[in-house]
Fold these 2 entries.
Entry 1:
Amino acid sequence: MIAFHRHWAGKAFTFAVISLFLWHGAHRIFHSLHDLGVKARGASVVACYGLALLGTLAAGLALLSIGA
């Protein structure tokens, strides 16, 4: 796995998979909250998509820290 993630294509693939799963999950959670009657639109948008953004940034930094 280390050899896979040292190559730029492995890093890009892993980053794409992680970020897409995070954004998909955030979108599903946001709409589930709406279905449950949570009307705090601003707070729920920031909570859901903000956590997805933080997770995406953390994944990018972690992948970039793996040396070549």
Entry 2:
Amino acid sequence: MARAMFEYTKAVLEKVSFNTELFKKELEKAVNRLLPYEIKELFYWLKDFTSNKPELYRCLAIVEKTKRSF
């Protein structure tokens, strides 16, 4: 079930990537509901996904801040 949540989160983030504020809100929700190892995985996925989207790249800080607390 947890893996399904991770995949769902990625799909949602891809769909809302056109809007920075919406992307940020969805990312914050994802960080609150995913497991610690999934947050690390999400961080690496986000680095790759946002590499050509500079407007979304600063959202990495949300995940990075949470990732450090583990």
